[in-house]
Sequence to fold (222 residues):
Amino acid sequence: MSYWLLKHVLVGPLLWLLGRPKVEGLQHVPAEGPVIIAANHLAVVDSLYLCLVLPRKVTFIAKQEYFTTGGWRGRVNRWVMNATGQVAVDRTPGKAGGDSLTAAARILEQGGIWGIHPEGTRSPDGRIYRGRTGVIRVAMQTGAPVVPVVLSGTDRVNPRDRRFLRPAKVRISIGRPRYFPPADRYAVRQATDELMADLVRRSGRQYVDCYAATFERHAEAA
Fold:
């Protein structure tokens, strides 16, 4: 109930007004059954825009800290996370990967939509970075189709260096579902690279063959 309240009353109308999103390929999202939405990642509001334009409820995996931080901001974050049906996982080293994939598989086994940004973190410069293999591993495990999605303009609505949202045109391009049968770990990496190449082709953006988080660490150290 709270998910739809946020989408249609509390948050959604503002996002529509700011981004005026144009959506292409919405017919490619299956009307029922498990689905993985795999999108590039430009801004914090990416997940909100995906929830806004997709007719079915989308669930993301969220850091446990969003549910446990104190203070008024923590309470607001916790309410939003719970209201939108986000699943908390422990992101401490050694546990994050396994817990996240288990939670994702559970969402899909219940016939839901799991939303994920395969880059793992926001792009620091708008380019598309190397994808993490979790999305393909879960797709192979569950048989759920992967729907590639390209977002553009969200980084202008929600710039990294600005505190408030700004008006800017948002475009969302949705590709055809892709299926990945079970395979060995080498095929998992190859399939992940093919998925990222699909996002690159659809977006027209440059590809960087390293993880976004690694690029940022090296940039900070330079």
In short: Residues 185-203 form the longest helix (19 residues). The chain has ten helices and ten strands. Residues 43 and 159 are 7 Å apart (CA to CA). The longest strand covers residues 146-152.
